[in-house]
Amino acid sequence: MKIDSAVTLNNGVHIPQLGLGVYMADEGAETEYAVRAALDVGYRHIDTAKAYKNEASVGKAIRESNIPREKIFVTTKLWNPALRAGNEEEEFYGSLRSLGLDYIDLYLIHWPVREGYVRAWSVMEKLYGKGLIRSIGLSNFNPHHLDTLEQTATVTPAVNQIELHPLLTQDEVCAYFRSKNIAIEAWSPLGRGALLANPTIVRIAGEIGRTPAQVLLRWHLQRGHIVIPKSVRRERITENAALFDFALNDRQMNEISALNRNERFGPDPDNFNF
Ligand code: NAD
Q1: 15 and 183 in contact (C-beta within 8 Å)?
Q2: Strands of 159-163's sheet, edge to edge?
């Protein structure tokens, strides 16, 4: 495995298993710098969203990198108000314009807004059919949301991007989506940074001479998660990609998985109000 090693999605599209997340990175210099640093280090996958308000900076850094467009995998997400207003198509074209790209590699429904996600999916299927999106998927979906979607869907979602880390291993959700051939993508893979000081993680990092961030991210990779750690600092972006010259053994993997407490840092997909 190496930095741009890919997972094959259910429609044959390849997604690099490691990407850079840019949630809470400011539009302008901060996001441009982070994306440029990541591309320099060898990342080929960037995860943004309409809601992050930095799509334009992501697109600018990608264009200015002079790396061929098809070598970079770009994810963005349809934000909740569009699902309530029913203007998903307009929102998609808005993201495409902000990014300044001709197509998006992966477009996700950001949250399962109850009154809108079934219709939103049909709009995304249409855009996918036009070739404007290489793969379409979900974020923050629980099994019952997928069951509802499946009643009318004609395209199987390629991924479900969910909060996932050692305090929230979501074993049943992962197994359910995988049984449908839907890949699992982990957001807040470092628990928003809070897991970096966890004593078990720190001890294992000491055992193998790696950093806590690397231990956490390697645990995700070995569990088969697509992973999108966020940082805007070059040294951390570099550190978070140095994951391919070591492995955790079974005992270390099991100790980390045993930290699960079903504890979220973010909102609950069955009870959110934004
Ligand atoms: P994360 O788990 O990636 O943690 C990020 C925090 O850890 C930042 O404060 C950063 O400064 C710190 N950090 C990163 N690398 C470090 C290192 N090597 N050493 C020390 N500190 C380090 O949290 P996140 O940003 O919430 O999640 C990652 C990405 O997932 C986001 O940027 C976004 O792209 C995506 N996301 C998606 C959703 C969704 O609803 N789909 C929700 C949240 C996040």
Answers
A1: yes
A2: 20-21, 45-47, 73-78, 104-109, 133-139, 159-163, 183-187, 226-227
Our mutation pick for probing the ligand 1 site, out of 141, 231, 232, 274, counting the most ligand atoms within 8 A of Cβ, is 231
Supply the CATH number for residue 155's domain: 3.20.20.100
Hey, what are 195's tokens? 């897991």
In a domain, 208, yes or no: no
Asked if residues 105 and 135 have their Cβ atoms less than 8 Å apart, the reply is yes
> What is the DSSP pairing of strand 45-47 with strand 133-139?
unpaired
Token look-up 């010259």 returns: 245
With beta carbons less than 8 A apart as the criterion, state whether 102 and 134 touch.
no
Residue range 185-211, pLDDT digits in tens:
999 999 999 999 999 999 999 999 999
Read off the pLDDT of each residue in 19-34 and give the average, rounded to a whole number: 98
Side-chain-facing half-sphere of 212: CA atoms under 13 Å:
17
Does a structural domain hold residue 90?
yes
Task: Give the confidence band of 225 by pLDDT, cuts at 50, 70, 90.
Answer: very high
Q: Ligand 1 pocket test: which of 230, 232, 237, 268 has the largest number of ligand atoms within 8 Å of its C-beta?
A: 230
Strand partners, 183: 159
Distance CA 65, CA 69 (A): 10
- Which one, of 163, 151, 154, 167, lies nearest residue 128 by Cα? 154
Residues forming beta bridges with residue 70, ordered by sequence position = none
CA of 189 to the centre of ligand 1 (A): 7
Name the nearest CA neighbour of 231 among 264, 195, 189. 189
Does a structural domain hold residue 213?
A: no
